[in-house]
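Structure ticket #2291
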Amino acid sequence: MQTPKKITPDSIVKAVVEIKYIAEVPFEILLGILVSRLDQSYTYTNRPINNSPLGLDNYVNPADIIININSRSLVYNNKISIQFQPNSLIFSCIDKYIGGVDFLNEIKAALSFLLKNGEVKKWTRIGLRYISEYPNRDIRECIKFNFTFGLPDVESVSTHFKSEFFYKGTKVILNLMNKMPALGTDSKEATPHVVNTSIIDIDVINDRLEIPGLQIEPLINEISLVHDFEKEIFFGMLREEFLNTLQPEY
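Resolution: structure written out below.
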């Protein structure tokens, strides 16, 4: 399936890649080793450097990827953050989505600093989660999906649909929310107010990895493949007329 390289706007409010690993040393020691290897473009903190979009956490059920960074050990530069947890690394875009190619390049650059002496024995799992948000929009105008059930005379005020399925050897957790009331603003200075917001939340997981810890290229290739699957699912759901409004570039 051919998918666009870029759409404008992309409406992505959260982009997260989680990589799980098995280590040869305890986490507390590994954390110190990994942080010490990053270059000076990264800053260390155990406090949040940004928050989820207002109201988002009230309605997006946490799937397998953790996106709340409060009270976590993490480092960040001007594009991404890296959250360190026992047996996992979580990469997130900070202020805005920087694009799939740049995001992957940032992950690869960080891993090239981190992976040197074999403290990570192997990589076992990749999870990629993208959340797109559409304020003041009925999601049925955007995707080929109808929220219907056994009461045809009932018109839902808001709707949340969740599905788990397999796609090309990966597990997918799909959350669709239509017109969920959430706090939002029209600008950073504006007073928060309730905005009916629709959300497309796609989590693609490959939990069958057996990649040696020092092998970066095979790991990056697997992340890229999972990213391609996420794009195929996302664009496969969109109505053609809505996609055309997003100025797709192929």
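Closing remark: The helical segments are 27-37, 56-59, 100-114, 216-237, 240-244.
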